[in-house]
Model the fold of this input.
Amino acid sequence: MPFARWMAALALCVSTASAQQQQPQRSDTLLLTRAAAIQLALERNPQLDVAREQIAELRAAKVQAVAIPDPSVTASLDQQPGFFRSSASGQKNIGAALQVPFPDKFRLRGDVAAADVKSAQANYAALQRQLAALTAEQYDSLLVSLRHRSDLTEAQTLANDFLKRTQARFDAGTAPRLDVIKAQVDVAGATNDLISNERAIANASSGLNRFIGRPLGAPIVATDSLGVPPMLPSVETLEAQALDARPELAALMAQRNGAHSATTLAREFWLPDLTLGVSRDVTGNSGPGVFSTGLAFPLPLFFWQHTRGEVSQSQHRERELAASYRDLEAGVGQDVRNAYAAASTALRQAIYIRDQLLPSAREAYRSTAASYAIGGSSAFEVIDARRTLLAAESQYADALAAANTSRSDLERAVSVPLDTIVSGTNP
Done:
């Protein structure tokens, strides 16, 4: 008896410790909507941290581009008998110099650096759009895996019910043994499908956790559900919005402005960068201090080297960016139209499966199961009808995920939320 009491107390302590260890895991479970997932990704994803640091680097480079050069101080021993040897007849000179670029060059250098900052900021906005679309896609992947689990669980329940009815009919002598074996195989298949679905859910959860900056194995619960998205605006409206809002176009335009400022700066090669200097002889026996001042600036005697060199290079850079901008405009239009075609097709497929295929598959299974109950249908027909229904439900889940994911990709291509565009059209 004392030994039994000791074992019972030990089991109670172990169960209490286990419960305490499991409690933090439950508290770490995150209830997440699609919008919240996107918001967390935009706040925590390290790719955006990289882009923000790059913008900060360019801002620092802008400060450096317009910085006034530091003056220089020199000291020399002149007319001395040897290296670093001073004599009464020698000179001891101390001087200071300051090189001042032509004032307009400060402005142009600042414009070039500011253009780099604007380009990086636009690329950052494009990365945000892309990351939002990828997060929504990963969230929908988790939703479709969960929906598949629901459908597979229902299929397993139906398979078990069918097995019970088949076993009852076999016991009553109205069904052959082969029908029972078929029903058992069907139950095993449904169970294996559920086991495989667990892997899909785990992979989708870890992928979403990576996007939102959480540990990959952290528990997550998607609170949204898959549904048929709203109708799409016209492709012409979306294309016009994209040409106004795509950050890639803004980034390239900033680069073009910077290249124009760089060309203007290169053409100012003939404007002098002034070098101002002052020196003083501080030799003790030279009497009062003797000062000397100077002014130096470059003389662009070989001007053709500049016009054929940095000026020509900058001009060709401008033309290159202008051609790239025209090509990018066409690419943006094609991107919008491709994304629109995918979203429109996926939406039409989801509506068709919801309104046509699923009702037919459900009715076929219902009538076949009812017929089997009264001895009219075979076990194979019931199993085939159930598999057809499961395939239709699986297609519907995949179609819903494709419709929502392609809509998110279309928003990325347009760079404007589709809900803010009021002109809707039928898919």
Notes: The beta strands are 30-32, 72-78, 91-100, 220-222, 232-233, 274-281, 290-296, 424-425. The radius of gyration is 38 Å. The longest helix spans residues 303-373. Confidence is low (pLDDT under 50) at residues 1-27.
